[in-house]
Design a protein that fits this description.
By secondary structure, this protein is mostly beta strands. It has 12 helices and 54 strands. The strands form 12 sheets. It has a 22-stranded antiparallel β-barrel. Strand 13 and strand 14 form a beta hairpin. Helix 4 packs across helix 5. It is globular and about 105 Å long. The two termini are 61 Å apart. 43% of the residues are buried. The N terminus is likely disordered.
Length: 1002
C-alpha cells in the first residue's frame, strides 16, 4: 500500500513539474505598492532572452512563446525596484518605489547609463516637466527645473530665439550655446536670418515637437561631455524621442486650446488727457515767459487738432488676445521584434501683437527591429514652421508696432482720417504698416529634416558593433516686403527682399563596445569610436522694387531689381577618434576615462588637431558595510571629475585667407579680402573640475551638491587690425575666462499615504564669472559696458545717476569715479563699475500633489543679483529730450514739480537739453525676479467609465503659464528677463497663456 501511494505521489509531482516546465503563456498584472494603481509600460522580460513585453494601460500583460527551458521572468520600471520571479501561468506583481533610481536613465555620449553608476554631473528632464509648458521651444520648460541651466528669453514672440547657458558664458567671441544631440545625432541650433540685428530669426529648436520627446539630459562636467570633444565647451543637451513599446497598437491624442495675453507689468502709457497735460507743462517749463498753462494747452490742441476728449490707445490697437492651439496624435506598438512610434502634430500660436505668430506642422516615425544577432532601425522627423515676426532691433525699428505706436504716434493722434483711410500723417502708422492686404510682410518659413538610420551587430560575449548615419537639414525662406505705408518702402514704390538659406549636417558614427563582468564583481565597459562630420551651408538673396499695384506684394510683381543678387556657400569638416572606458567594483567604486582627438577644418593648418580627455571617479559610500543597512542615509555617493573640452564655433573660413568676389570698381570686376591666412589659429579649450555629492535620506529625499571650476584659455578673440588689410578684425587665440560655482538640487516626497502623493523640488545655482586675461591686459570699453581683467564678462560701466535736485528738478550725477560729489553736467562725470548682468543666483522650485484621480502642480523660477539696462527707457522715460512722444505713466506720475520735489525723474521740459536721458544708471535696474511659471490642475477619469467607450485612459486639465512675476521695486518695464547682455530695448511684452487640454488613449 505504501509503495502504491509513493508511486502515485511520484507520478503526480512529475506531471506537475512537466506542466510547469511547459508553460507557454504567462499573463498577469503589475501594480504599484504605493497606491495600488496599475503601472503602465512596465517591462516584462524572460531572463536571459530578448523575449518580452510591456504592461498595458491596466497594468496587464501577456507573454507568449515562452521557451520550454525558461525559468525566470524579470519585471522592471523606472523609479521602481525590479523583481525576478519564477515563471507561472498567472502572475500578480507588486513593485516598490526606489527613490535611489529616480531619473536613473542618463543618456550620455554615445550611450545610456544609470544614475547610480554615473560619475559625471548631469540632470534629466522627464515628459512631465516638458508637458507643463506651452512655448514652441521645448527648452523654455527647463527654466528653473534643474540647477546649472540658465535661460535668457529676450522676447515672448512665438518662435523667436532664446539663449541657453550651462554654468555660465565661457567665451567672448566664439560660440556660447550648448551642443544639441537628438537620438544620438548632432543637430543645428544656430539661427539664420537676412539681418541678424533685427532679432527676429526663427529658433530651430522650435521645430522639435515637445510631444515626441521622451527625456532631455543635460551634461555639464568634463566627464560627461569630453567624449564630444571640440563641440562640448558649453555643455551638451541630449534629446531622446519616444520609441515603440511592445504590444498591440496604442493611440494617444492630445488636444490643447487656449489664449494668450500680455502678462501683468508696470509699463503703461498715458491716455490723451495725461499726455496733453504733460506736453503743456513741458512747454511752460521750456519758456515760462512765453507760455501759460492755458496757452500751452491751447497750442497742444491746435497742433494735434485734438478736441480735448478723444483718446486713441495705440497699444490697445496693436495688441490682441492670441489664440493658442496644439494637437498631437501618436501611434506606437510592437510585436516582439519590431517596434514603432509614429506621430503628427499641429501647433498654432498667435502672438499678442499684430503680425506676430507661428504655425508648425510636424511628423515623426521611429522604427527599430531586432533579429537574433543584429538590430537596426531609424529615427526620422520633418517639421515645417511658418512665422510672422517684426523687427526687434535694440536700436528701435519703426516697423516694430510697439515703437511706431509710441515714438511716432500719441494718444492725441487718430488711427484713421475722417474718410476712413489710414492717418498717414503719422510716420509708420502701425495699423497701416500691417494692413492685411497692402501692408508690410515679415515672414519666415523653415523646414527641419532629421534622418538617422543605424545598424548594430551583437557578436556575443558583450561585443557590439554599431554604425549610424545622421542627416540634419535646416532650411530658411524669409520674405520681407516694405509697403507704401513704410517710408522706406514708399520711396521705392514697394520693396521686396527674398532670403533663402540651408544648413546640412551629415554625421557618420561607428562604435565598438565591449562589456564584461569578471568574477561577478568587476564590471568593465570599453568603447572605441570614429566619427566624421560634413557641414554645408549656402544662402542667396535678391530684391525688387517698383511694384505696380498695391496689394500685389509677391516678388515676381516687382518692376525692377534692387541691388545685386548674392550667393554665399561654405563648408566645414570634422574628423574624430574617441575612446571611453568605465569600470566599477561591486557597485561601490567607479572609474571612467575618455579621450577624443578632433581635426577641424576651421583652424589653421598648424593647429587643426586637438586632444580632449577626462577622468572621473565615484565612491558609493552607502554600499560599504558600515552604511549598507542604514535606514536613514540610504544613499551616499562622492563624485569627482577633471578634463578638457574644446570650442570651434567661429566663422568656418576665419583662418583660410580667402577673397570674396562680387565687388566692382568703376564697372571693373574685383575681389576683396574676406579673411587672413592664420596658420596658427587653434582650439579654444576649457578645463573643467567637478566635485559632487549625492545623498538620499530615508529613501524619500534626494540631495545633490556640485562644486565646479571651469577655466577657458586660448579664447578665440576678435582682435582689431589695421584697415589697410581690408579687414577690421581677425580671430586670435588670446585671453582666458573662468566660471566657478555651486549647484544644489533637492527633491523628494513630503507625504505618501493611500490616495495621496505629495512631492516637491528646489534648486539653486551660484555662479561667478571672471575675465582672467585679455590681450596686453588692456580693458575693452564700450558705451556702458567694459571687458576688463578681474571683472565679469557682462560688467556695466557707466556714469552713476544721483537723482534729482529737489530745488530745481535738474538731473544729478556723481562726478568722480568714487565719492559723493555731484554735478548737473553729465560731460564732467567719470564712469563707475555698477554691477553685472550675470545673476549671482538663479534656480527654481515646485511641487506636485496627487489625490486619487486629481493632480495639481506648481512651478516657480527666480533670478537674483544681476542688473538690467533698459536703454529704450531713455526714450520712454525721457523728460522732454526726445520731444513729444507718448509718455509712460511712470514718467507722468513721478516727474519733478513744485509739489513733487523728492523724486528720481527730472523736471519735464520740452526740448530738454540737460542730458537727462544720457546713458547712466538712471536706466539701470535690479534684474531680480520671482516668476509663478506654471500652475496646472488635472483629473484622470476612472477606467471603469471609459471601457464602454473603448477608451483606455482620459485626462482633462487646465493650465496657466507665466501667471505673475514679482520684480524689484525700481524696475520699470515689461519683464526683467532679457538678453544675455542685460540690455532691454523695445522688447516684445512678456505673455501669459491660459489653456485647457484633454489627453486620450485608445
Amino acid at each position: 500500500m505504501k509503495k502504491k501511494l509513493f508511486l502515485i505521489c511520484t507520478c503526480l509531482f512529475a506531471c506537475i513539474s512537466i506542466a510547469m516546465a511547459q508553460v507557454s503563456t504567462v499573463t498577469g498584472v503589475v501594480i504599484s505598492e504605493e497606491d495600488n494603481l496599475p503601472i503602465v509600460g512596465a517591462s516584462v522580460l524572460i531572463k536571459g532572452t530578448n523575449t518580452g513585453t510591456v504592461t498595458d494601460m491596466d497594468g496587464k500583460f501577456t507573454l507568449g512563446n515562452v521557451p520550454a527551458n525558461a525559468k525566470k521572468v524579470v519585471i522592471s520600471f523606472i523609479g521602481m525596484k525590479s523583481r525576478e520571479l519564477d515563471i507561472k501561468p498567472v502572475l500578480s506583481v507588486t513593485l516598490q518605489s526606489d527613490t535611489e533610481v529616480l531619473d536613473e536613465v542618463v543618456v550620455t555620449g554615445y550611450g545610456v547609463t544609470k544614475k547610480s553608476t554615473f560619475t559625471g554631473a548631469a540632470n534629466v528632464a522627464s515628459p512631465t516637466t516638458l508637458e507643463s509648458h506651452t512655448d514652441a521651444n521645448f527648452m523654455k520648460a527647463l527654466e528653473g527645473s534643474m540647477p546649472g541651466v540658465q535661460m535668457n528669453n529676450s522676447t515672448s514672440m512665438p518662435g523667436a530665439q532664446a539663449n541657453v547657458y550651462i554654468r555660465g558664458e565661457s567665451s567672448v567671441n566664439s560660440g556660447t550655446q550648448p551642443l544639441y544631440i537628438i537620438d544620438g545625432m548632432p543637430m543645428n541650433s544656430d539661427t539664420d536670418a537676412e539681418t541678424e540685428s533685427y532679432n527676429r530669426a526663427f529658433n530651430p529648436l522650435a521645430n522639435i515637437n515637445t510631444a515626441d520627446i521622451e527625456s532631455i539630459t543635460v551634461l555639464k562636467d568634463a566627464n560627461a561631455t569630453a567624449i564630444y570633444g571640440s563641440r562640448a565647451a558649453n555643455g551638451v543637451i541630449v534629446i531622446t524621442t519616444k520609441k515603440g513599446q511592445e504590444g498591440a497598437m496604442h493611440i494617444d491624442l492630445d488636444i490643447k486650446q487656449g489664449f494668450t495675453t500680455i502678462a501683468p507689468n508696470n509699463f503703461s502709457f498715458c491716455n490723451a488727457q495725461q499726455t496733453a497735460d504733460l506736453f503743456a507743462q513741458g512747454l511752460v517749463n521750456s519758456n515760462p515767459e512765453k507760455y501759460t498753462y492755458e496757452s500751452a494747452m491751447a497750442k497742444i490742441k491746435s497742433d494735434y487738432n485734438w478736441d480735448g476728449i478723444q483718446n486713441y490707445d495705440w497699444i490697445d490697437a496693436i495688441t490682441r488676445t492670441g489664440y493658442y492651439q496644439d494637437y498631437n496624435l501618436s501611434f506606437n506598438g510592437g510585436n516582439g521584434k519590431t517596434r514603432y512610434y509614429a506621430s503628427v502634430g499641429y501647433l498654432n500660436q498667435e502672438g499678442v501683437a499684430i503680425n506676430s505668430g507661428m504655425k508648425r506642422y510636424s511628423a515623426r516615425l521611429n522604427l527599430e527591429t531586432s533579429y537574433k544577432w543584429f538590430n537596426f532601425g531609424f529615427n526620422t522627423s520633418f517639421a515645417l514652421a511658418d512665422m510672422d515676426a517684426f523687427s526687434q532691433s535694440t536700436g528701435g525699428s519703426y516697423s516694430n508696432p510697439f515703437v511706431g505706436g509710441t515714438l511716432k504716434a500719441t494718444p492725441l493722434d487718430p488711427f484713421y482720417n475722417e474718410d476712413g483711410t489710414y492717418n498717414t500723417g503719422i510716420m509708420y502708422n502701425p495699423l497701416a504698416v500691417y494692413d492685411e492686404d497692402e501692408g508690410d510682410i515679415y515672414n519666415t518659413k523653415t523646414t527641419t529634416i532629421n534622418l538617422n538610420p543605424y545598424f548594430a551587430i551583437n557578436f556575443g560575449k558583450g561585443i557590439v558593433l554599431k554604425t549610424s548615419l545622421g542627416l540634419n537639414s535646416y532650411g530658411t525662406r524669409q520674405y520681407d516686403f516694405w509697403s507704401w505705408y513704410n517710408n522706406q518702402g514708399a520711396s521705392d514704390n514697394g520693396r521686396g527682399t527674398q532670403y533663402n538659406s540651408n544648413t546640412t549636417t551629415i554625421t557618420w558614427t561607428n562604435t565598438l563596445n565591449w562589456m564584461h563582468t569578471f568574477n561577478e564583481k568587476h564590471n568593465l565597459n570599453i568603447m572605441l569610436g570614429q566619427e566624421a562630420q560634413w557641414k554645408n551651408y549656402w544662402n542667396e538673396k535678391y530684391a525688387g522694387i517698383n511694384f505696380p499695384l498695391r496689394g500685389y506684394r509677391e516678388l515676381n510683381m516687382a518692376g525692377s531689381s534692387y541691388g545685386n543678387p548674392s550667393y554665399v556657400t561654405r563648408q566645414a569638416r570634422l574628423a574624430s577618434f574617441f575612446l571611453n572606458a568605465s569600470y566599477d567594483y561591486q557597485g561601490k567604486y567607479y572609474g571612467q576615462v575618455s579621450f577624443r582627438r578632433d581635426g577641424s577644418s576651421v583652424f589653421g593648418q598648424n593647429n587643426r588637431w586637438g586632444n580632449f580627455w577626462s577622468l572621473g571617479g565615484k565612491w558609493r559610500i552607502s554600499e560599504e558595510e558600515f552604511l549598507k543597512d542604514n535606514e536613514v542615509l540610504t544613499n551616499l555617493s562622492l563624485r569627482a571629475s577633471y578634463g578638457t573640452v574644446g570650442n570651434q564655433d567661429i566663422d568656418w573660413y576665419a583662418a583660410r585667407g580667402f577673397y570674396s568676389a562680387g565687388y566692382n570698381y568703376d564697372s571693373t570686376p574685383g575681389i576683396v579680402p574676406e579673411s587672413l591666412n592664420l596658420p596658427d589659429l587653434g582650439w579654444e579649450t576649457s578645463k573643467k573640475l567637478n566635485i559632487g555629492l549625492d545623498i538620499t535620506l530615508v529613501r524619500k529625499w534626494n540631495l545633490t551638491v556640485d562644486f565646479y571650476n571651469e577655466a577657458t584659455s586660448n579664447m578665440l578673440f576678435e582682435l582689431p587690425v589695421s584697415q589697410v588689410t581690408g579687414l577690421s578684425e581677425v580671430y586670435q587665440n588670446i585671453g582666458s575666462m573662468r566660471n566657478r560655482g555651486v549647484e544644489i538640487g533637492l527633491n523628494g516626497t513630503i507625504l505618501q499615504t493611500k490616495g495621496w502623493t505629495w512631492t516637491a523640488y528646489a534648486n539653486v545655482t551660484l555662479n561667478q564669472n571672471r575675465i582672467t586675461e585679455l590681450s596686453g591686459g588692456k580693458p575693452i570699453e564700450d558705451t556702458y559696458t567694459i571687458k576688463q581683467e578681474g571683472y565679469p564678462l557682462r560688467q556695466f560701466y557707466m556714469v552713476e545717476y544721483a537723482g534729482v535736485d529737489p530745488d530745481t528738478g535738474a538731473p544729478l550725477w556723481y562726478k568722480n569715479a568714487t565719492g559723493d560729489e555731484t554735478t548737473t553736467n553729465w560731460n564732467e562725470c567719470a564712469k563707475r563699475y555698477l554691477g553685472s548682468a550675470d545673476p549671482k543666483a538663479y534656480g527654481g522650485f515646485g511641487t506636485r500633489v496627487q489625490w486619487k484621480n486629481f493632480d495639481f502642480s506648481a512651478d516657480f523660477n527666480y533670478r537674483l543679483g544681476g542688473k538690467v539696462y533698459a536703454a529704450s527707457n531713455r526714450s520712454y522715460l525721457s523728460a522732454g529730450s526726445k520731444g513729444n512722444i507718448t509718455p509712460t505713466t511712470y514718467l507722468y506720475e513721478n516727474a519733478w514739480t513744485e509739489n513733487n520735489r523728492y523724486t528720481d525723474v527730472p523736471k519735464y521740459i520740452y526740448g530738454n537739453t540737460s542730458g537727462e536721458n544720457n546713458h547712466s544708471s538712471r536706466f539701470l535696474y535690479s534684474g531680480n525676479f520671482l516668476r509663478v511659471k506654471n500652475l496646472q490642475l488635472g483629473y484622470t477619469l476612472p477606467k471603469g467609465l471609459l471601457k464602454k467607450a473603448l477608451i483606455d485612459n482620459m485626462r482633462i486639465y487646465v493650465s496657466v503659464d507665466n501667471i505673475y512675476t514679482f520684480k524689484a521695486k525700481d524696475f520699470v518695464g515689461y519683464d526683467p528677463e532679457t538678453y544675455t547682455s542685460g540690455l532691454i530695448a523695445y522688447q516684445y511684452p512678456s505673455t501669459r497663456t491660459f489653456l485647457a487640454g484633454i489627453t486620450l488613449g485608445f
